[in-house]
């Protein structure tokens, strides 16, 4: 990472971001050797990423051909408006995580059901999902990403601006927060 001052070194912050981010982006290597990026629903549990998919298709073909993947999540924290006399005060404040790892299709029935249950818990909070019908399970691929490297990065501003952003995060202010640019 070029700017080490932006690196997130606290594992809890990274874990919380991975648990709360609504969308992840999967990077695979296509048969034509071009990278491909796909947004997807995912869950982070037991230091692994899980997602579901159809059993056939481009991303599954890519993973079968080359299991090396990249996975990214980001959270827009705040938009800082520029000033009329200085539009360069505009900023985008964020947190992000980039993962490199190996993707594998999950064949173990217990692990598949657990991953699908965790996905339901994330995307259907408070709802009881019940048992998964065998016919649907037969049509559904579950993929696990075993993490090799994980890097977090953030820009929460400086000085008084950072204090306002951190206070907004602690207060549970809906994101992204819209702020006016200021000195510092």
Summarize the topology.
Elements: E1 7-8, H1 11-20, E2 24-29, E3 35-40, E4 43-45, E5 48-54, H2 58-65, E6 68-81, E7 91-105, H3 109-123, H4 134-139, E8 140-155, H5 159-171, E9 177-180
Parallel strand pairs: 6-9
Antiparallel strand pairs: 1-8, 2-3, 2-6, 4-5, 5-8, 6-7, 7-8
CATH architecture term: Roll
The fold-level CATH name is Pnp Oxidase, Chain A
Q: Which structural class fits the helix and strand makeup?
A: alpha+beta
Number of helices: 5
Q: What is the CA–CA distance across the termini?
A: 24 Å
Which strand-content bin applies to the residues?
A: 35-45%
The assembly state of the depicted protein chains is single chain
Average predicted confidence as pLDDT: 91
Enumerate the spans where pLDDT stays under 50 for 5 or more consecutive residues: none
For this structure, what is the CATH homologous superfamily?
A: Electron Transport, Fmn-binding Protein, Chain A
Compute the CA-based radius of gyration. Answer: 19 Å
């Amino acid at each position: 990472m070029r700017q080490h001052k932006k690196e997130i070194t606290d594992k809890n912050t990274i874990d919380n971001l991975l648990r709360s981010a609504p969308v992840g982006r999967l990077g695979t290597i296509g048969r034509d050797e071009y990278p491909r990026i796909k947004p997807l629903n995912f869950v982070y549990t037991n230091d692994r990423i899980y997602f579901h998919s159809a059993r056939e298709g481009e991303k599954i073909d890519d993973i079968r051909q080359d299991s090396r993947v990249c996975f990214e999540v980001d959270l827009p924290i705040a938009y800082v408006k520029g000033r009329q006399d200085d539009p360069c005060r505009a900023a985008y404040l964020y947190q992000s995580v980039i993962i490199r790892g190996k993707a594998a299709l999950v064949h173990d029935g217990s692990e598949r059901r657990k991953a699908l249950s965790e996905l339901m818990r994330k995307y259907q909070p408070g709802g009881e999902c019940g048992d998964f019908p065998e016919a649907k399970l037969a049509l559904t691929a579950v993929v696990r990403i075993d993490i090799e490297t994980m890097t977090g990065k953030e820009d929460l501003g400086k000085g008084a601006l950072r204090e306002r952003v951190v206070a907004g995060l602690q207060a549970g202010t809906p994101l992204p927060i819209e702020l006016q640019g200021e000195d510092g």
